[in-house]
């Protein structure tokens, strides 16, 4: 599973390395091929502005990641289930002393005083505040202001940067550079606000942020579930599952048992990003109709970096995701407990890295916290009171649940390859510790969030429809639509080989739960395709080779990475169409892989309960077992995932980049996992 940039898709990878002529020669380390959607370059950055530079040190033994993870995750390994301790992981992957000294020597030789240079607590980042002039000289680049056309927000970044050839092997990435969205460091007037001022300020922030759709959890985020119409009549009849999915439908489809015996140490985590928040009254309304024993029950609440259940705005845009995730996960795994990881305050927000920081103190960056170029920074620098978090950034201290489901995602093209690879290796480390990570694969078929595709000539987003809703929850409205075709856009982290990517299916119209499902083609299309960053993992090699040998898609390298050497996704699927949820006091339909991921995660949580009650370890990283025993999944062979002016890929016998290996069969899956050590 050794990662490498795909040579045949250098346009996508965003990294160009020139051949070294001498140890003094600078080589391009990262280059951004396109701006994220909605941004434009403005003016040159002032030379005196201060940039909080972070130098990410290359970790040791990453070339053995496949070996290590397969040793505890592959069903044929004698060490299956013998997960590592955090200390063992920290010691194995810590940057070498050589790498640390090389970076420190480079900075001091470049005129940076030793007093300005700090090593992060995890010893994996070197930090130094530099002026734009110093940074440009050090990295042989130019820094620019970029403006977001929707909000007017200003950020600073460069188009590429270079470092000495003999230093390059010691550095993963440097920020702020080509990564978005970086902010110029400046004095901020932090003041105390009255409760009324703070809430009005928070409400206005939400009204403004929903238009952007550029960060995780904002109501314009294309990875959020899609709203359907109101449910006219509740119906728990299994004969109605082709038009209304309720918990009993999923139990019938996937043979999920009811009231499965509790395992004391079992845990299931759902991750939400503020301002997304559930409403307690919605949970009770749903449970009263579909799981009466849960009325009054709430998830165990873990607030990370000021995560809060905001109530200043209540509608589908702010409650739909969290209501959906919790109503179904809690109902399906009862009486197992569910933990809600609520990440980020209203103003700074959060990213996947903020969450990972909270689980693993060694992953934290600057001053034991987060990376200011991508992630929320705390204490919140803009104020205090409601919606502002004044505490320290989370850096370890939060326990990882055995299974963690996340229903959010980025376009792979919006982040640099180094940033994505560094985060992906963190999922590998958590997998070594026995954690199962599931991510939804996306709702736009082969296109990116909101249907975005990439112009093969300019490298810019050239089509797709962007959606917005009013603060009063009007129906989805298209506000931008240009073009009808382009290059496919994989999702992230769905394309990371160390997570389990979950696509979407649906019950066929007029069919029953005893008949095979098909790929989701109602309102949404199951996200799927091939990564432009991550190489083909060993556990998936045979499945991908068989797919191309028998069902080679009719598209060329101008539309997707057809090298047959890259990671394919999704791995599995679950129903994602016509879910009935209680939302803002009423019942409505919802669609998305946002539903598929927590459903599949619920199945894995019950399998963990069986293993733990048998005195065995949690399942941990599940992909090697899934691909070794595909018979325990319901193969999906109908439907497709259109997008970017094409029919997309097609669901076929065996693995495919639409529904992966298929949907779960709990009875078969628990039998396989209970037979393992």
Automatic annotation (TrEMBL):
One of its GO terms (molecular function) is serine-type endopeptidase activity. Its cofactor is Ca(2+). CDD domains: Peptidases_S53, Pro-peptidase_S53. It comes from Coleophoma cylindrospora. Residues 1-17 form the signal peptide. SMART domains: Pro-kuma_activ (SM00944). The keyword Metal-binding applies. Ca(2+) binds at residues 635-636, 654, 656. Coiled coil: none annotated. SUPFAM superfamilies: Protease propeptides/inhibitors (SSF54897), Subtilisin-like (SSF52743). It is found in: Secreted, Extracellular space. The active site is at 321 (charge relay system), 325 (charge relay system), 594 (charge relay system). Binds 1 Ca(2+) ion per subunit. It catalyses: Release of an N-terminal tripeptide from a polypeptide. GO terms for biological process: proteolysis. This is tripeptidyl-peptidase II.
